[in-house]
Task: structure prediction
Amino acid sequence: MKLIRLAFFISHLSLLPIAHADVASRITEALIANTSAQSFLEWQQSGHTPNDIFRITRQIDSATGWTELCTELSKLSGENLALFEDEINDRATARKLGACHSRLVAKLTRYWAASAGELAADEDGAGDDAPAQPAAITLPSEERVVDTSSGPVISDGGLKAGEIALTFDDGPHPTRTERILKILKEAGVRATFFEVGEMAKHYSTLPRIVLNDGHTVGSHSWNHPQLPQLDFASAQKNIVKGHEAVIAATGIESSFFRFPYGARNKALQKFVSGLGMATFFWNMDSSDWKLRNPAQLFQNVLQELSNAKGGIILFHDIQEQTVVVLPSVLRELKKRNFKTIVFVPKARTPRP
Ligand SMILES: [Zn+2]
Result:
């Protein structure tokens, strides 16, 4: 027993200086991994996500470790710091960071305010004379009914040029989802939200708020794994558990589904279709998991719109930059005479 303790003590001792010295490089690695990742999945599996970085500091949990982390984070630009925002805002982390937490939050607040200003100035044709408060707009919104009984697989929704379906994945988020709802409501736009079961259960009042605003709510697995990497039975369970959690939160039978990362195999697709659910993909990707600068995100959305002309666009309602960019995207859609489409399942059965 003593030997085990001693071994643990020695390994812990040797871990401390290495881990501390490495904070700066681990933060740099996270930024590089995010920028170089070609897909959300590649980024999540890089081993350099903010969660990976913070986990090491949490495990060691020394005052020096937290101070060092804060020092290194404080050196980042607002845009780079934004990559770590969710970890910084985690309640337990906030306590550990102490006074440093408020300084980081203040820097992020300044970044989002400045980037929103930059975005407004960048909007096509607005130039430097852009009004501080652009006029409110409304967009045409039309329902497209989907018969899910045959388990259809939908990638661009058969939408024509000039038709766009907005989709938001990975929520509900405790602060961002409702801000997105407010922006959509003001423009009279309805969308589809693919919610993660674990989030729907944790923030259990939000799914019904989304639904009551006229949006469609589908499911997106229980906890967002790469399903084809799980054994088949676990993957099936993960899909069903996520689906049931979303139904429990909305009170409505949901028959829309999206694979996390769009990752599937034939057997899983057959399973989902066999449940009588429509599987949704997308043909336009905002890349909002990666582009933290709203002006760049906006440019990417414009590019996707120009390339595809219409179809289903993927956003994430858990990203701050998505909240910031959405009003500009809606104004652009208006300018381009787009019609927004909301997919609704043929039958929506209330669950007791
Ligand atoms: Zn997702």
Q: What stands out?
A: The pocket of zinc ion is lined by residues 169-170, 220, 224, 260 (CB under 6 Å). The domain at 139-345 is CATH 3.20.20.370 (TIM Barrel).
